[in-house]
């Protein structure tokens, strides 16, 4: 018998009869310990200065590259744009393209011209 089995047998012999594990039970020393609950780490907030974005380019410090830039603005169609086009299609099919041609019917996404990082959206 290996030493570990001998020492286990000695421990079992020295235990009182009511403390010995019964057939099918796990001995106390081999039972898994309750896991300590993991505390979720708080996310670290990086302070970013909030610059009010509008439909026109604005001057900001890009949080991604750190450069002081004037944003690039790209218009993006939204659900409202598509709903207006569908309404115009029912009323006057000739004007169906109008919401897609007008910037006032689309959101304005602001991007950094240096690193092309997304800076925010002006919703209409």
UniProtKB/TrEMBL annotation:
<dbReference type="GO" id="GO:0005765">
    <property type="term" value="C:lysosomal membrane"/>
</dbReference>
<dbReference type="InterPro" id="IPR006629">
    <property type="entry name" value="LITAF"/>
</dbReference>
<dbReference type="Pfam" id="PF10601">
    <property type="entry name" value="zf-LITAF-like"/>
</dbReference>
<feature type="region of interest" description="Disordered">
    <location>
        <begin position="1"/>
        <end position="30"/>
    </location>
</feature>
<keyword id="KW-0472">Membrane</keyword>
<keyword id="KW-0862">Zinc</keyword>
<dbReference type="GO" id="GO:0008270">
    <property type="term" value="F:zinc ion binding"/>
</dbReference>
<dbReference type="InterPro" id="IPR037519">
    <property type="entry name" value="LITAF_fam"/>
</dbReference>
<dbReference type="GO" id="GO:0031902">
    <property type="term" value="C:late endosome membrane"/>
</dbReference>
<comment type="similarity">
    <text>Belongs to the CDIP1/LITAF family.</text>
</comment>
<feature type="domain" description="LITAF">
    <location>
        <begin position="42"/>
        <end position="124"/>
    </location>
</feature>
<keyword id="KW-0479">Metal-binding</keyword>
<protein>
    <recommendedName>
        <fullName>LITAF domain-containing protein</fullName>
    </recommendedName>
</protein>
